[in-house]
Amino acid sequence: MSFFGLDCVKKKEKETERKIRANDREHNLSFKYATNAIKTSKYNVLTFLPLNLFEQFQRIANAYFLCLLVLQVIPAISSLSWFTTVVPLALVLSITAVKDAIDDLNRHKSDRQVNNRRAQVLIDGELRNEKWMNVQVGDIIKLENNQFVAVRALLSLCLSSSHPLSPSLAVSFTLALCFCLSLCCPLGEVCCEPPNNRLDRFVGTLVWRGQKHPLDNHCVLLRGCTLRNTDWCFGLVLFAGPETKLMQNCGKSSFKRTSIDRLMNVLVLFIFGFLVFMCIILAVGHGIWEHYEGTKVMAFVPQQNEDTAFSSFLTFWSYIIILNTVVPISLYVSMEVIRLGNSYYINWDRLMFHTGSGTAAEARTTTLNEELGQIRYVFSDKTGTLTQNIMCFHKCSINGKAYGDVFDCSGQGYGLSGDMMMVDFSFNSLADPRFQFYDNNLLEAVKLETLEVHSFFRLLAICHTVMAEEKNNGLYLVYQAQSPDEGALVTAARNFGFVFRLRTPESVCVVEMGVPRTYELLAILDFNNVRKRMSVIVRSPEGKLALYCKGADTIIYKRLHESCSKLMEVTTEHLNEFAGEGLRTLVLAYKDLDEEYFSEWKQRHHQASTALEGREDKLNQLYEEIEKDLLLIGATAIEDKLQDGVSQTIEQLAKADIKIWVLTGDKQGASLGHNPHHSTCSQRKKTIILGNNPKVVQDENVNGEYGLVINGHSLAYALEGSMELEFLRTACMCKTVICCRVTPMQKAQVVELVKKYKQAVTLAIGDGANDVSMIKAAHIGVGISGQEGMQAVLSSDFSFAQFRYLQRLLLVHGRWSYLRMCKFLRYFFYKNFTFTFVHFWFAFFCGFSAQTVYDETFIALYNLMYTALPVLGMGLFDQDVSDGWSLEYPQLYEPGQRSLYFSKGAFIKCALHSCYSSLVLFFVPYAAVRDSVSTDGHDIADHQSFALLTQTCLTVTVCVQLGLDLSYWTAVNHLFVWGSLGMYFLVTFTMQSDGLHRLYASSFPFVGTARNSLDQVTVWLTVLLTAVLCVLPVVVHRFLFMQLNPTINDKVRLKVHQMKAQPPPPRRRARIRRSSTRRSGYAFSHAYGYGDLVTSKRFLRRPVPSRSAGSTPAGRSAAFRPAGRSAGYSPSGQEQNPKQATEPTELQRYRAVHDATFCRQGVAPE
């Protein structure tokens, strides 16, 4: 339970094992297991105000101003009214509190949405609808098709998909348990491991009716999964709420701060120190003045018997109050408003909206926008991030002959294009119309009944764990596959006349060239990460036994018969060619079995599969025994296509000096083939491959461009303390870095390594749950909402649908956000330092008496009304060049990487500029009003007139300076600048009117000052002179630097001005040529245990209505229109790869025909 939002429950002892009695709540409650309620909100109605204020006053600036408020209520040291601090402090606290309240309301809404989902729970012998939050450990719940799983449950039978923590497994079977569900009495007891974050293992036992049954990871289903392909099933709740593996793997989300925030902390501490230094000088000056001059004014002030030292001490605190504006409280709230506005720009950007999925870009955090403009390293996943994770059957090799390449009349091969004729599959009424293949030679070989070709497609149609689902009375055929690779292979076999139609626990029905054939399924030798292959043993309708096997080439080759050596050499050449194109490969083989041998083997297989100890080792020995002396059939090549615009995006980011490292779990060959940056540079780049024996390149040996490829095994050694610096040094000398076969933890370690030693801003981008640790470790985490669920998106700071949007996020929004924030900070410090330093100079002319130079109303409203909106307008709308030119010249991004726009040096320059401006703003008006009279002969050298003149000069000057800093004037900027100036004069005349003075004489002492002073020509000439003198050095400095040492921004803006009437034409895409010859990764990724359910007779689908096993030719009537998965397979069941025009990228819209040539004096026109 919680009290005032704080966890007050005593932490229970750590569990060593968990004991659960099924359907017995009273017994299970005694162990105090976690409930299933989820709470991510921070406040409630009672705790919001105290907790929020407590959090806000943990900020140094807020606590500082609270201390100032306390000092201001002490009459002895305060020369300012309390409202000058209370008003801005209250406004800042209120705005921040409203923002926090809105964020927490959204969290409450999300919590309610999750906790109030409904689940059917077995209570007192009947099913009741309960909220998720009320489900408890030990409950029996009923799950229905397409329903989310509320807890981690021990299942009786299910088929799950869209697994959020293992998204590459599109559909995964869980093993059935050997017990029957009773709705009236407890099922038994479960003893299992305590809550942990291990996804790959689960250990437990079920005691039921006096017998023990082993439980493993295939008997459970994780919270957040969705039940598929089964009408209903029952499950026993093992873990709930924060103890589920989903919540255990979420990890700790560290609070991310931008580099500007970290710099601001240092600067604020410096400003505090500088403030104390100034106050010490003034306090010392007060003591000196009191000692030498104080006795001369005793006749004019009441007699005081104060000690000089004590008077100086009080003066010190008085000036702390007066000069507090050197650290403006409105700075922080203004920064939050600017960040929020720039976040909305990302959300509203139509050019980052993906029409195919209806997904818009989203800024999931509002505090990291400017960090997007300083990225030096991008760490990217491959599958689903750079590629579409949609597999297409592209090429194959059968009996030493390669298919899939298309040749012209002269025999020259050329790439695929939209004008080429696809293979006509109209002869096959069951073909998927979305399947695309261009080599007619393969179809002709099928029609000629070539034995090897038929064996090839027969294997693809039989050796898999795909489920065929017929809908609408057989008029709609859908393939449900655990991996998209299998979906693509089965669909290819389907189009070439070998249609997988139906599966039962004992058989597989295939329509071969229009003839239905039923194969008896005798055994499935399932896939796992060690075996890297899958086999099935079937009996054909003719009674022949055969073993069909597919898997990685390195694994299958070891088990081939020696007679296949020549065929293996030819197939290997084809595999290398496929790998050069980045295709994912599988090798296919078969073996005829002897009936007597198989019977004896099957008995041993049954004994091994029921063993309670050493089960896996015994089964693996049997698999090794039977999977040998195989005969090679051929190989498949599947393409996981790159997303649109990936190559262009990487090219643009490289021009912006952003280094891209690919961290992937795929094999080395597939990673090299799919890495566009490697492919585009491969002809001029040397590749360093670090295998199990790492090789470190010394500095003196580096000559030319290098790329680094390292696998997960070697990376484990490279990340050790003694090697990590050498590894990082080597990697940073390379243009491309690819880490293959790495774990999620290794991805995060690589990111942390770069953050630790390079002191560079990093960005991690991925689409799956295995990228979450990397996303959380980087300064900026970007999630792609693709085929692998939403776990990466939920853990990210920014999200969108396609990798190509990254260039717009960084080169446009990131650069603009950084530029705006830096301009905002420079200007904000300038206007406040100038404001404060005038007080400092005035102290030397008022006897260090802590008298303010400005009207108190002006002091209170300077940062809140007179100068707030113009600087906000600059922070929200300014841009040096348009988005098109930002993409045309990625080099504009480099100043942000080097922190040129705002740094300690820029801050010092700003302070010196403010010092100069404050001198002008004090001494020019001082000289103008000294010994001067108005037109009517009256003296105008009084304090009120001087204060009005000084604050008017200050207000006009800072507005003129803002106009010089603005690069892009909008109607809003005009409204803010001129409106603020108008508001200043309106408020000044109002506050210094006779009416308010009569009502509150003590609060409005400046009666008639504005009316009497601002009608003098001398006053306006003084305002003009001070404004010119203040901005003249800025104008001269900028002019000289633009002529002598122009920046990249100056050059591009000059060119934009020259080409203002001509928008840049689109740039033609360059064809990417791949020349890698390394072996591609094998296209096989489903989980171990999938095949056991197929043969378990505890099948997931209800029996098909009576019809022939398979399909008769009559079944292929004109009314039957299959709509199953094409080679562009998607686990979500949505149509993939529709034939539609590709969206033009930003690069196509705005790129020029060729790169601009920069010169010293400017940008040469194209």
Q: Please, could you describe this protein's structure?
A:
This protein has about 1150 residues and is of the alpha+beta class. Helix content is about 40%, strand content about 15%. It contains 37 helices and 37 strands. The strands form 8 sheets. It has a 9-stranded mixed beta sheet, with helices on both faces. Helix 23 links the parallel strand 34 and strand 35. Helix 29 packs antiparallel against helix 34. The radius of gyration is 37 Å and the shape is elongated. It starts with a strand and ends with a strand. About 45% of the residues are buried.
Short summary of the structure?
By secondary structure, this protein is an alpha+beta fold. The model is unreliable at 1-10, 157-185, 678-685, 692-703, 1070-1078 and 1099-1166 (pLDDT under 50).
Q: Helix count, per DSSP?
A: 37
The tally of beta strands, per DSSP, is 37
Shape: elongated
The span between the termini is: 70 Å
Low-pLDDT stretches are: 1-10, 157-185, 678-685, 692-703, 1070-1078, 1099-1166
Strand order of the largest sheet: 16-35-34-33-17-29-32-31-30
User: SS-based structural class?
Assistant: alpha+beta
Helix share bin: 40-55%
Report the C-alpha radius of gyration, rounded: 37 Å
Tell me about the largest β-sheet. Answer: 9 strands, mixed
Instruction: Quote the average pLDDT.
Output: 77
Share of residues in strands: 15-25%
- Specify the oligomeric state: single chain
Active site: 381
Domain P-type ATPase C-terminal: 793-1047
Organism: Electrophorus electricus (Electric eel)
Keywords: ATP-binding, Magnesium, Membrane, Metal-binding, Nucleotide-binding, Translocase, Transmembrane, Transmembrane helix
